[in-house]
């Protein structure tokens, strides 16, 4: 799991690509276990200025970070579903359940991964309608599945049924 993090940091150092590592907020609750920032510091004693680590307990918003990112890398975090909504390419390097539905980039090798990092670091954000379409279809399928397994009251409570009717959709 940590190999891709070490290789990402090394690649970004070598190519002088800005990298922001947002430690998952759930790590703030971990007691007695090594945190990701501790693990990174065992491999990299001092990081250069183009590498920034935002700690788990930091109040910085992941969504504000996404607004300024050219790409985002996730292992399995559910924010990977939200990233494409920000017109930010999402590179999945773990076995996330939403992988391979057409709205994430899923490298099969470190070589392919490095190509993606390099490509996304050099371009401006581009809205990919194909990616957004696949993302919306995936999210809609999750909504339908939740209703199918008995979460119908959830939609009534949140008003989702009315929203769907007003837009010509039925959840």
In short:
With about 170 residues, the chain is mainly alpha-helical.
3D structure, described in words:
The protein is mainly alpha-helical. It is built from 8 helices and 4 strands; from the N terminus they run H-E-H-E-H-E-H-E-H-H-H-H. It has helices at residues 3-15, 36-43, 62-68, 79-82, 110-122, 129-148, 152-158, 160-166, and strands spanning 19-22, 51-54, 72-74, 90-92. Strand 1, helix 2 and strand 2 form a beta-alpha-beta unit. It is globular. Residues 149-171 have low confidence and may be disordered.
How would you state the average pLDDT, rounded? 82
Following the backbone from N to C, one meets helices and strands in this order, namely HEHEHEHEHHHH
Number of strands: 4
Largest sheet: 2 strands, parallel
Span between termini: 37 Å
Number of separate helices: 8
Uncertain residue ranges: 149-171
Q: How does the overall form come out from the CA principal axes? A: globular
Helix content: 40-55%
Q: How are the strands of the largest sheet arranged?
A: 1-2
Percent range for β-strand residues: 5-15%
Oligomer: single chain
Question: What brief labels describe this structure?
Answer:
mainly alpha; disordered C terminus; two-stranded parallel sheet; 171 residues; 4 strands; 8% strand; 8 helices
SSE blueprint:
Elements: H1 3-15, E1 19-22, H2 36-43, E2 51-54, H3 62-68, E3 72-74, H4 79-82, E4 90-92, H5 110-122, H6 129-148, H7 152-158, H8 160-166
Parallel strand pairs: 1-2, 3-4
């Amino acid at each position: 799991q940590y190999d891709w993090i070490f290789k990402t940091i090394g690649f970004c150092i070598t190519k002088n690509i800005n990298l922001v590592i947002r430690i998952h907020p759930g790590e703030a609750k971990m007691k007695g276990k090594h945190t990701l920032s501790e693990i990174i510091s065992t491999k990299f004693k001092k990081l250069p200025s183009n590498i920034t680590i935002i700690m788990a307990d930091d109040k910085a918003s992941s969504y504000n970070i996404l607004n300024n990112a050219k790409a985002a890398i996730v292992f399995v975090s559910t924010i990977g579903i939200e990233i494409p909504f920000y017109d930010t390419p999402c590179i999945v390097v773990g076995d996330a359940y939403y992988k391979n539905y057409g709205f994430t980039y899923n490298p099969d090798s470190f070589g392919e991964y490095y190509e993606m990092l390099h490509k996304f670091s050099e371009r401006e954000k581009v809205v990919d309608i194909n990616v957004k379409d696949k993302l919306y279809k995936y999210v809609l399928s999750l909504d339908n599945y939740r209703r199918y397994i008995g979460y119908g009251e959830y939609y009534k409570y949140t008003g989702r049924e009315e929203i769907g009717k007003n837009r010509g959709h039925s959840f």
